[in-house]
Hints:
The protein has helices spanning 8-32, 82-92, 106-131, 150-155, 187-199; strands at residues 38-49, 60-70, 74-80, 136-137, 141-146, 163-173, 177-186. It is α+β, with helices and mostly antiparallel strands. Strands 1, 2, 3, 4, 5, 6 and 7 form a 7-stranded antiparallel sheet that branches. Strand 2 and strand 3 form a beta hairpin. The longest helix is centred in the middle third of the chain and has 26 residues, at 106-131.
Amino acid sequence: MENVGLDLEQRDALGEMSNISMGSSATALSALLMNRRVEITTPQVEVIRRSEALDDYDHTCILVHINYIKGLEGSNILLLKEEDVMRITDMMMGGDGNTVVGDMTELHLSAVSEAMNQMMGSAATALAKLLNRSIDISPPKTEHIDVDSIKIFEKLFASPEKDMVKVTFKLTIGDCIDSSMVQLYPLELARQLVEYFYVR
């Protein structure tokens, strides 16, 4: 949809912040995966309707909910593809990530929760340094959701706004993952980030 609510300069600022913070999280994930090459790059920023947030996913996806408890007000969400999470889990357990069989289990969710905790902690630290302010997050909450369960998804955001900021990243891990991941912000939080970006 048209990027109502954020002009080009604001979207560019969000892209720069996302690139720096998620670049730091890629380093953290690499350390968990036996120093495999991890790249989270090329953020594309757009404004979407909340109802469109899960349109890129067919049946299920992995949702990671992050609350800011210091320095910023609000929360954001990461969306990952189920197969990518299963491959990451396999690599965390010593596998090569190239063979994924069976269904998503609590083991996968537990492993990716640990990975996301490390990644988003690093991302928050990088963002805090960039914005020159102290930022803390709560431990990320990870869920395996049915993409048709929009009501569950919408309950995660207290904001009444119908528009959201969607940042899509290219995700590559070694030679076994060439995919994408999505970060979602309420529009209000995105504007808050841009404001802090320009007054740092």
